[in-house]
């Protein structure tokens, strides 16, 4: 599946400082100062490299055409935000919240999103490759054009989420929770099928 990639060119190196009510264009961030507040702002056509956002507070921040390489975005809130044409490569995004957010043309590669929450989010044109989505929560999540390859979904929950057409056959769905609505139309391999049948209380005679 092809998705629209971030449109980035002519970057200027910069360092994080307090930012409010601004749109930040064409910047490359690979350093940060302590205790930064970024509020009511948009990052547009930016690259972030090895940035630990632990001491960077994000309040009402939107992301457009950005690349995150080996960054730590754990426990950040992107609730109700637009996030489009973004790459997350080798990132930690543990416990982050995307409730009611709109994500379009996003790739997650070799990233950790354990305990993240995608309830009521809209996911459109999403590629997830060799990433850890264990213990994530999807409730009434809208999905369209989702591709997963070798994704760890252990203990993830899918409730009232349309997963029809998504291929889970290369993924780890051990102890993954699906309600009946979410199961309709998904693709799994034979081994996974036995697990799902057992989860529904059906016993397979061999």
In a few lines, what is going on in this structure?
The protein is mainly β and 206 residues long. Helix content is 7%, strand content 41%. It contains two helices and 13 strands.
What features would you highlight for this structure?
elongated; three-stranded parallel beta sheet; 7% helix; 206 residues; mainly beta; Pectate Lyase C-like; 2 domains
Structure notes:
The protein has 206 residues and is mainly beta. The chain folds into two domains: 8-72, no CATH class; 75-200, Pectate Lyase C-like (3 Solenoid). Helices cover 7% and strands 41% of the residues. It has two helices and 13 strands. The strands form two sheets. Strands 1, 2, 3, 4, 5, 6, 7, 8, 9 and 11 form a ten-stranded parallel β-sheet that branches. A three-stranded parallel β-sheet has the order 10-12-13. The longest helix is centred in the last third of the chain and has 10 residues, at 190-199.
